[in-house]
Design brief:
The chain has 463 residues and is α+β, with helices and mostly antiparallel strands. It has 13 helices and 16 strands. The strands form 3 sheets. Strands 6-10-11-16-15-14-13-12 form an 8-stranded mixed β-sheet. A 5-stranded mixed barrel has the order 1-2-3-5-4. α4 crosses α6, α4 packs across α13 and α6 crosses α8. It starts with 7 loop residues before the first helix and ends in a 20-residue tail after the last helix. The protein binds one RNA strand of 76 nucleotides through β1, β2, β3, α3 and β11.
RNA sequence: UCCCCGUUAGCUCAGUUGGCAGAGCGCUUGACUGUUAAUCAGGAUGUCGCUGGUUCGAGUCCAGCACGGGGAGCCA
């Protein structure tokens, strides 16, 4: 394997004159009479290593196998580059073609691919400039998220992916079953008999780890989850996946103000980390994908977020003097167009909206004294809308029981959730961040399917 | 799931009033002593998404279906 020090990223930092060996895949090759240039990438950094092959240095039979997509081991001397694009380059004295790639059929070319085409080549697209940058940023972002919480004493909890309760009473869920679909056991009433199923009752893939995270918050004080989440909604948009990754911190002894403050610190910290550690990748996105991302990210990392209540937001929208497609009135949920107006036109930066009407929010959100609103918060970002959703949780047993009943949810399914409010209940709060939504925001990528390695969407689970 | 748009060479696309299937890039052959999406010259490459229909004749008109994109809803 390649050890630290052997990545292309490391080779760039070595002194001129060193003997080095590089491994990677050929991105492209240029020939002149007497000299060839090979762009070699191993994914460790945005820049390719330029390999220079002088006339006679390498056998023609070997060089014939050096084509776009082929994998190589190259040894030679690191030299200062007289060309403009790079400080150093590798003067090859030995090239081994590890795996060839037929130029007639290799799908990736030097330029001109659409995201849609590359999505169909998900097994090769990670070798491209764009997807190399996307997945390096994704990895750095994931690290920054763990670091942020670990440094603050948060416990990382692995909540289950298979669940027998419907966490929010909302959203279609994927069933998990070992029953024979061609021969389903039936109850006398004709319903499917899940008592003979693997878990003895109906099971699903989780739509959120929040309820289990609350259990851990009431034992470990501050916790967070970071794992995959599943929604079986038939959503066909550039912002939805059937399988995506979500981060859900949950804090005991915390109210909505603390929750809001943490969300803002969190976003600033992880954006700063990426700004400091992925400069070349971000420069590429800023140049080729969206020329506003660098200035936007720098602003978000430093400027204070706006905070308005739902009631204030509605008031702003009513005074906007604009004909929205969906009417604005107190009690209506904010639509995409309303969120965009607030973030892109009114404030031009992230906005945290709090205290939504009880009727449009989930049962577990803490009811305010006005009996009409709940301690909910949405962090809205320019261009992509809701990036974080969270709330202070209802910690009062009787109020929570009433809210579950009022929303028509089965009390018995929530027995343990209610029992947490009987034994040492404390005010607590948390939020959820969609990793892919955050990545879209950071990279400027327009389709969520292009910031996850292998997207799952309705009708598509290839790879 | 609803609305709109699209599907022509490996890729990105043009294709006029229904009348011989096109370009650029990629690939390939050659030229060129240092390129940066190299450049220059030549060459090959087609189930016009699928199934029907209209017509003397359909890439072009009509219908259905499939797939893709954008917008909406659901939401992270």
């Amino acid at each position: 394997m390649i050890e630290p020090g052997g990545y292309v990223r490391d080779i760039f930092l070595k002194p001129v004159g060193d003997s080095v060996t590089a491994h990677g895949w050929v991105k492209t090759r240029r020939d002149s009479k007497g000299v060839s240039f090979i762009q070699l990438s191993d994914g460790s950094t945005f820049a390719d290593l330029q390999i220079v092959v002088e006339a006679g240095a390498i056998l023609d039979e070997v060089l014939a196998g050096v084509t776009t997509g082929a994998s190589l081991r190259v040894s030679g001397e690191l030299v200062a580059s007289p060309g403009a694009g790079q400080a150093v380059e590798l003067k090859a004295s030995l090239i081994e073609v590890i795996g060839t790639a037929d130029t007639a059929t290799y799908p990736l070319q030097k330029k001109g691919h659409t995201m849609e085409f590359l999505r169909e080549k998900a097994h090769l697209r990670s070798r491209s400039n764009t997807f190399g940058a996307v997945f390096r940023v994704r990895s750095a972002l994931s690290f920054a998220i763990h670091q942020f919480f670990q440094e603050r004493g948060f416990l990382n909890v692995h909540t289950p992916l298979i669940t027998t309760s419907d966490a929010e009473g909302a959203g279609a869920m994927f069933g998990v079953s070992t029953l024979d679909l061609l021969n389903l056991p039936r109850t006398e009433a004709g319903q499917i008999d899940y008592t003979s199923d693997f878990f003895g009752k109906r099971a699903h893939l989780t739509v959120s780890g929040q309820l289990e995270a609350e259990i851990f918050a009431l034992a470990f004080t501050n916790v967070y989850t970071f794992g995959p989440t599943f929604r079986a909604e038939n959503s066909n948009t550039p912002r939805h996946l059937a399988e995506f990754w979500m981060i859900e911190p949950e804090m005991a002894f915390c109210d909505l103000d603390g929750n809001r403050a943490l969300a803002e610190q969190f976003l600033k910290a992880i954006i700063s980390h990426v700004l400091n550690h992925c400069e070349a990748d971000l420069a590429f996105f800023n140049q080729r994908v969206d020329n506003t991302i660098l200035s936007t990210l720098e602003q978000v990392a430093t400027a204070d977020f706006e905070h308005v209540t739902y009631t204030e937001a509605v008031s702003i929208l009513e005074k906007a003097g604009r004909a929205f497609e969906f009417p604005v009135f107190w009690g209506a949920d904010l639509q995409s167009e309303h969120e965009r107006y607030l973030t892109e036109e009114t404030f031009k930066k992230p906005v945290i909206v709090t205290d939504y009407p009880q009727e449009i929010k989930a049962f577990y959100m803490r009811r305010n004294d006005d009996e009409k609103t709940v301690r909910a918060m949405d962090v809205l970002a320019p261009r992509i809308g809701e990036i974080i959703g969270g709330s202070q949780r209802e910690e009062r047993h009787d109020v929570l029981r009433d809210k579950i009943t009022a929303q028509g949810l089965p009390l018995e399914e929530y027995w343990w959730y209610l029992e947490l409010r009987k034994y040492g209940s404390v005010p607590h709060a948390g939020f959820g961040l969609g990793l892919e939504r955050m990545l879209m925001y950071i990279t400027g990528m327009k389709n969520i399917r292009d910031v996850i390695p292998f997207p799952r969407t309705p009708g598509d689970a290839e790879f």
